[in-house]
Amino acid sequence: MKPIKLYGYCTSPYVRKVGAFLMYKGLDFEFVGISPFEAASQLSKFGGTQVPVLEIGDDWKRDSTPIGHWLDELYPEKLLVPADDPERETILEMDRWVSDRFMPSIFRAAIDAPDNLAFRYRAWRLAALVSSGSPLPEQVRNDWPKVLKGAEFIQAMRPQMNMEVDADTNRMQLAGEIVTRLGEGPFFGGLDRPSIVDLSLFPQMVFGVMGGLEEEISAAALPPLKTWMQRMAGELPANPVLIPDSYVVKPLAEALA
């Protein structure tokens, strides 16, 4: 089989999404951690700094959803997107919602969270996780709270966030919509197997706890989501979030017990 390399940051939800695709399909791959300050040189052969980038042999693609379609073409054993309508269009519509609404909301704290000790701890922990893939200078890690607050790519996502309500209300609204979209399951779209939607959402929901950013999985307080997450845990490895095992603070099995 051609060698597979995934380039990006373990802290990027879009990179974790692609990692989940590969794990679900049972494909061996190398995760290549990138430094945001050296991305231009580290990704120079791809002609840009956007991640994720997936390289298979001599070919490569970027952008998580197109990568998912590419993987289905190359390795169709476990399709990420159903081949036929209406299931296909249902899943693609849900994936657009995840990409355009849910994913940007993950970055909201960098925009309007108070610059207090709790925010700084989370930022420093994120810097440590980024550094696990491509070491950051100590001063950069110390300045990570400022780096997040000033990150242009995060500010550019602001129009995709619902800034008309506070962050807690927004999280509740998103959780409610996820439960509605899950419906009776067992997976999104009423499918009997995971799709691109399940694999996009799951690693984001468990990353915080596994990476030491949160004490518990907040979504697991909702019984339908906890049942779904336990089901998803059976479809993926014990560490589905691309951080080194030595950096995992709470194992997935413990977090979902």
TrEMBL record:
The GST N-terminal domain sits at 2-79
Show the Pfam families listed in the entry: GST_N_3 (PF13417)
- From the Swiss-Prot or TrEMBL record, give the protein name: Glutathione S-transferase family protein
The protein's organism comes out as Erythrobacter rubeus
Its ancestry begins with: Bacteria, Pseudomonadati, Pseudomonadota, Alphaproteobacteria, Sphingomonadales
